[in-house]
Amino acid sequence: MKQIKIKYKHQVILYFALMVFAISLGFSYVFFQQAKNSKTEMLKFQMHPYTDLIYNYLTKEDTVFSGDFIAEKMADLKGILPEKMRFTILNPAGWVLYDNLSAGYLKMENHLKRPEIADAIVKGSGSALRFSETLDSDYLYYAKSYPDLIVRAALDYKTVVKPLLINDNRYRAYIILIFIIVIALLVYVSRQVGRPVSALKEFIDKVQQGKGDYDDIRFPDNEFGDVGERIKQTFRQLENTKQYKQQLTHNVAHELKTPVTGIRGYLETLLQQENIDNDQRRFFLERAYAQTMRLSSIITDISILNKIEEAADKFEIETINIRQCIKEIESDLAFKLGEKKIEFSIKVSEDLAIEGIYLLIYSLFKNLIDNSIEHGGENIGIYIENTKCEDNFVWFTYYDTGKGVPHNHLERIFERFYRVEAGRSRKSGGSGLGLSIVKNAINLHKGSISVRNREDGGLAFDFSLALKIK
């Protein structure tokens, strides 16, 4: 048999409705008992004056209380006493002398054991709600003890007492009204609580169906909604990461294919052509070596990027003199700079130092310079300036006087393997990852970077680095 699945919000309504119903029943019982006791006391209070009236009227004359005498006197009070009220008069020994509703009252058994009579003898007055065997009905009794008589009044429970207790149904209306209001509030609350659950279910359904458009899913503006939004954002980040890694894998495979194919072609030529002369042999070896160096450069750059993104905490933090670092790069690239007749200018304070990762700071400036050397052209200038230092940050401007980059490409030049011109990095031997390393190195040092074309020609980078990253 298929199990019936109840929605979460309906479960909430059901559970709380049962709880409210149980509380309402308990409240109703307590309220009813209190009302019953209150009205019972009111009825006993109403009977009290009649017992006093009867006793005072009977004792006006100094006489022996006989059944006939009492019956005669009670007849005189007939117009005063309520018709529906039962009156019984007993002597102190508990024997009945008169009962207005029972013709055989003189034959009644002794009443000393009746609870209302027993209490009256001991306490002066007593009451009880019990069954009367004489009249075969339930009665509410009130008895009062006097020096030489006991006077008892009673009201029939079915015809007088009970209707009075159940006539006032206001409390039931109040309870029903409260119950309806609470149920309405429960429905409202359950809908509010159920909204994030429904939205989350819709989101999961879309994820399982492979639908990536989650923008139309709206979570409520509360804590549950915040959790839902975070889950949605996390899934979006995971999807973006997945797509990013897929694209990265494709790009890496594509970039590695070029040097590997080149190396293979040069080596196959050397192996298959035994009569090749020495000059050609050396040419092929040099080309194979150049492709090997390019392959090594790609692997090194990928390794640096992966370490920045996945294991940044593994880098060693040290004090770095920026000017000395740049001078070291200038020395390493002196041949290339001279070959292309590039003027190199450093306007950085000799004592400027930051707490950071030397490998990344070195890669940052080296990749910027490599980019200018490879793509800026010959007879250009490269300038590095320290523009300001404030609020725990140092600001730099790096620019060259080369060809620059078309404006529509500026926003994407920091992407991995992005090329302004198809094959540009392959022809120059670059990995296509240099500027991506630059941006990630700056981000790791809590800085920011922007790029622009200079009016006088060339490309300019404005960036900042934190003086301390920890």
Question: Could you name the key traits of this structure?
Answer:
470 residues; five-stranded antiparallel β-sheet; Helix Hairpins; five-stranded mixed β-sheet; Beta-Lactamase; alpha+beta; 17% strand; Heat Shock Protein 90
Fraction of residues in β-strands: 15-25%
Main β sheet profile: 5 strands, antiparallel
CATH topology of the largest domain: Beta-Lactamase
| N-to-C order of helices and strands | HHEEHEEEHHHHEHHEEHEEHHEE
Q: Please state the CA-atom Rg, rounded to the nearest Å.
A: 52 Å
In terms of quaternary structure, the protein is single chain
Judging by the overall fold, what is the CATH architecture of the largest domain? Answer: 2-Layer Sandwich
- What class would the helix/strand composition place it in? alpha+beta
What number of structural domains do the residues give?
Answer: 3
Indicate the mean pLDDT: 81
Query: Helical proportion?
Result: 40-55%
Q: What is the CATH level 1 assignment of the largest domain?
A: Alpha Beta
Number of strands: 12
Question: pLDDT below 50 for ≥5 consecutive residues: which ranges?
Answer: 423-429
In the sheet with the most strands, the strands line up as: 2-1-5-4-3
Shape: rod-shaped
CATH superfamily of the largest domain: PAS domain
Number of helices: 12
Distance between the termini: 63 Å
